Amino acid sequence: MLRIYNSLTKKIESFHPSSPLRVTMYACGPTVYDYATIGNFRTYILSDVLLRTLRFCKLQVTYVMNITDVGHLTGDNFGDADSGEDKMEKSAKRLGKNAWEIAQFYTDAFIKDYELLRLEKPLIFAKATENIPEQIVLIKKLEEEGFTYQITDGIYFDTIKFPEYGELSTLDEVRDGARVEINKEKRSSRDFALWKFSNSKEKSLSGHEAVHKKRQMEWDSPWGKGFPGWHIECSAMSLKYLSLGIFDEGKFHAENSQTIDIHLGGIDLQSIHHQNEIAQAEGATGKKFVKYWVHGAFILVDGKKMSKSLGNNYIMEDVTKNGFDPLALRYLYLQTHYRQEMNFTWGSLEASHNALVHLRDEVANLSEDKNHGDKVYEQRFIDALQNDLDMPRALAIVWELIKSRRSDGEKLASIMKFDEVLGLDITRNRHIKEIYISVPDNINELIVKRTILRKEGKYQDADKIREELRKEGYIIEDKNGVTIPRKLK
Ligand code: AMP
Ligand code: ZN
After folding, report:
1. CA pair distance 27, 65, nearest whole angstrom
2. Degrees (nearest 5) of the Cα angle 263, 265, 266?
3. Are 348 and 336 in contact (CB under 8 A)?
4. Which ligand 1 atom sits nearest the alpha carbon of residue 30?
5. 3-class SS at 449?
6. For residue 96, what are the contacts with CB-CB under 8 A and spacing of at least 6?
7. CA separation for the pair 438, 387 (Å, rounded)
8. Is 17 part of any domain?
9. Based on the domain organization, do 118 and 233 belong to the same domain?
10. For a tag on the chain, would you pick the N or C end, based on fewer CB atoms within 10 A?
11. Which residues surround ligand 2, an ion (CB under 5 A)?
């Protein structure tokens, strides 16, 4: 049975889904005003590994991820992201596009990177902008239940009315005005916006006045033109897609609410964003929102926090541009337990890349002679997964099996199973090997010659051989350090 750390109870617990037939799981997705960083992808890889583990344990999982494409404010998520400039509009201005174009552009880029990392697709990438009516219905329900109040710049959640507020937070992180100027009219600094008005003035305690004018993204609502607060989208969309029937016929049906099994995100979301999601959902339904809260630790880069100003917020393009297999990043992240902070360096990525290539070569050399794997290793692998996703241990077991005296066929069968969870495309070089076997000897010889020339830096000579190969009817492609010949039709 899977055991996983639950941030709500602050313990490792046995996993018992609400329904044995279908696990429901939601992950907080990207805010699409820029490329997702390799830091963000550590969290999505965690989500993917958990999803694959549940499926490996023969559970049906309905998985949803949101795309935050409404422009939230630059404040940050401390005390609330309700002040500052709109992130999407700021990015639009910088790139000479409008906010909608920016959102679409970075959503597409995100999905491309998502595929490069072989992350399993959710049932839906739920966009905030496509679920505005549900967010409004949820806010209306909260209003009816007496959880809201109105001030000059919007409708706010009154956290005092929700006595459990703070159960998920590490409380000292919810300090008054820790990093954001507090809106003077808020009853408590922990209160957060549910709906912000497009045309309003906001005054902070220091007397600073911010004017919110017409925005590129705004919607009509019972409270006037405006846009949703950041937190409401996740409560609304997770309930909509995972607690079916709750928004039927444009009304809120608390009686249809079902506890969601898993909600996941990076550790920075725990104290505010996720706490606020609980307040919104449980305020409206009166029932437990989520059973298991799973949070992944951050990556640092060269020992420092990732940030634009340090120029170290690397993206997937940096990984591929430097010649690394995207899956080497997956391999690297699997080597550290998800609740442990880890430090990214290009050297560590290179080591992971080499280890992955080595692993694939080992697997390419296994001759197939059996169609069932080794039960002892398979049990040890499952035990590692089920022990709060001990992926470093799971990877070590793969290597132990490779080095063991088990037969090639057993090794291969087990490793193919393991890769359903690891997602490292471990058998890739077997296919490449098959391609090599299928080309004539003279072609293979030319390829070897060209590889040696390239290693010696004789690129012009190497290009001549490429041309020769083309005349022989083969084009060649250099991918992740391997040359792959393809026959021209
Ligand atoms: P954002 O696009 O900032 O809302 O972040 C998307 C997801 O990535 C959230 O779950 C964050 O907690 C997570 N995240 C952001 N930065 C990092 C990082 N440096 N390491 C790991 N996860 C991160
Ligand atoms: Zn969220």
Report:
1. 5
2. 155
3. no
4. 2
5. helix
6. none
7. 43
8. yes
9. yes
10. C
11. 28, 234
Tokens of 346: 């290009």
- What CATH number corresponds to the domain at position 182? 3.40.50.620
Please identify, by atom number, the ligand 1 atom nearest to the C-alpha of residue 267.
Answer: 12
Which residue has 């084009």 as its token pair? 475
Q: Model confidence at 39, in pLDDT bands (50, 70, 90)?
A: very high
Distance 266 CA to ligand 1 centre (A): 5
> Quick one: 275 exposed, middle or buried, by C-beta within 10 A (0-12, 13-18, 19+)?
buried
Ligand 2 centre from 143 Cα, in Å?
A: 21
**Separation of alpha carbons 197 and 223, rounded Å:** 8
Domain that holds residue 477: 432-489
Three-class SS state of 477: strand
In the structure, what pLDDT confidence band is assigned to residue 484 with cuts at 50, 70 and 90?
confident
Q: Which of 28, 38, 43 to mutate to test the pocket of ligand 1 (most atoms within 8 A of CB)?
A: 43
Token pair of 353, please?
Answer: 């890349």
Predicted confidence (pLDDT) per residue in 3-36, tens digit: 999 999 999 999 999 998 899 999 999 999 999 9
- 15 alpha carbon – ligand 2 mean position (Å): 22
Task: Give the other-Cβ count within 10 Å of 451's Cβ.
Answer: 16
Q: Read off the pLDDT of residues 196-252 as tens digits, 9 standing for 90 and up.
A: 998 766 555 566 666 656 678 899 999 999 999 999 999 999 999 999 999 999 999
Give residues (CB < 6 A) around ligand 1.
Answer: 28, 30-31, 39-40, 42-43, 265-266, 268-269, 296, 298-299, 306
Atom of ligand 1 nearest to the CA of 42: 21
Q: Quick check: helix, strand or coil at residue 214?
A: coil
Number of domains in the chain: 3
- If asked whether residues 395 and 328 sit together in one domain, one would say yes
Domain boundary among 277, 296, 315: 296
Ligand 2 mean position, distance from CA 323 (Å): 33
Tell which one of 268, 293, 308, 337 to mutate to probe ligand 1, the residue whose CB is within 8 A of the most ligand atoms.
268
